[in-house]
Amino acid sequence: xxxxxxxxxxxxxxxxxxxxxxxxxxxxxxxxxxxxxxxxxxxxxxxxxxxxxxxxxxxxxxxxxxxxxxxxxxxxxxxxxxxxxxxxxxxxxxxxxxxxxxxxxxxxxxxxxxxxxxxxxxxxxxxxxxxxxxxxxxxxxxxxxxxxxxxxxxxxxxxxxxxxxxxxxxxxxxxxxxxxxxxxxxxxxxxxxxxxxxxxxxxxxxxxxxxxxxxxxxxxxxxxxxxxxxxxxxxxxxxxxxxxxxxxxxxxxxxxxxxxxxxxxxxxxxxxxxxxxxxxxxxxxxxxxxxxxxxxxxxxxxxxxxxxxxxxxxxxxxxxxxxxxxxxxxxxxxxxxxxxxxxxxxxxxxxxxxxxxxxxxxxxxxxxxxxxxxxxxxxxxxxxxxxxxxxxxxxxxxxxxxxxxxxxxxxxxxxxxxxxxxxxxxxxxxxxxxxxxxxxxxxxxxxxxxxxxxxxxxxxx
Length: 461
Ligand SMILES: C[S@@+](CC[C@H](N)C(=O)[O-])C[C@H]1O[C@@H](n2cnc3c(N)ncnc32)[C@H](O)[C@@H]1O
Fold this sequence. Notes:
Elements: H1 11-14, H2 21-31, H3 35-41, H4 59-65, H5 77-89, H6 104-111, H7 114-135, H8 184-203, H9 214-219, H10 224-229, E1 233-235, E2 238-240, E3 246-249, H11 253-263, E4 272-276, H12 282-289, E5 294-299, H13 302-310, H14 318-322, E6 330-334, H15 337-346, E7 351-356, H16 363-377, E8 378-386, H17 395-411, E9 417-421, E10 450-455
Parallel strand pairs: 4-5, 4-7, 5-6, 7-8
Antiparallel strand pairs: 1-2, 2-3, 8-10, 9-10
The protein binds S-adenosylmethionine.
S-adenosylmethionine binds next to strand 3, helix 12, strand 5 and helix 15.
EC number: 2.1.1.-
Subunit structure: Monomer.
InterPro entries: Ankyrin_rpt-contain_sf, Arginine_N-MeTrfase_2, RMT2/GAMT_Mtase, RMT2_dom, SAM-dependent_MTases_sf
């Protein structure tokens, strides 16, 4: 085995003597990549996902962790891969977090074990697609960061900021949520994870580990209906809800810029634009600067609507609406997109560019939007894009969701193209500090890249 770089990754730290023998045995065989001894132990369903009760170590964590940092020692990587394969085959859970708030994929990323990382991503994609089929939508499990020293997700290439993560390299027509700021689907899944943890704790001593920040994660959930009832505050550089969740923040301006440049590459005047979710109006300001012939905005939150209608800082009020050459060409549609879009479709509205960036909604809503509505709303040469924040608080979740969403977009008959950009992480690296001051949760931790995609025309139906 490779020498673990830090004590915290040592076998005795992860599988302490207090570990129940039946769990310790599986973890040890996984740690030592002893496939022959491990296999029979996995005959009992659920045993591939046992967790050390205090460290949360799973067989996947153990098999990856014992490899140590890539290139640092003589590790039989093939043996490690065979163990991972066997564990996944036996139902090992790809996104269990340990006491350091790391999933197996996070450990692989931190250690630079790229092949093992890719296996975790592959397993995550399969699992999330399956959940999607079984439940109708996908959920990611990802815990809040807790200020722990190991919490930061490290680029799998271990490269300096700005270097690309190979997994996210642009592809056309093969496997991102827009979303959403505090990645709602993640938060929902955290709640679900918490509920499941409780059930498991009661029924399964093999899964008695409870992540240290589970309660905190539960407390930070955002539900759409609750969000739409809460009071919002516009302050310098951000829009926050009543619980100080960041709804929209000025640091995302460069992402909005790339989005507009991708959706309207030639920036020609006279295009028809639809934006769902006004927030701080950043992207609408950019769309307006291209001088569209039609510019529709859908916004559901009463405080945002009131800001639009009355704030002297906002240029999308009544005067903007009446400045259009044609009545109704510039319009803020008040209401949830779920209610407004059917009316636009009924009215025969179509657009050259559609952007989707809501808040407090889970992935099922985004998927419904692009599957059921985008094809009818988009002009033949039109493009659709969204804020790709799915799982953005954890690299491995982001990579899994990027692939899952691409598959769903392809299923919906769309061609997918990705664009990547560096996110300037200055001021974004520390919870509660810099840009995050006054914001409850750091919903973006991807310190080197951002992937955005746009969709050239959907296939004809
Ligand atoms: C992240 S902000 C959008 C930021 C925007 N892209 C910008 O450049 O400032 C999300 C917006 O979506 C709105 N929203 C949330 N759910 C919605 C829904 N179902 N229909 C329409 N708007 C919604 C929120 O009130 C919020 O104003």
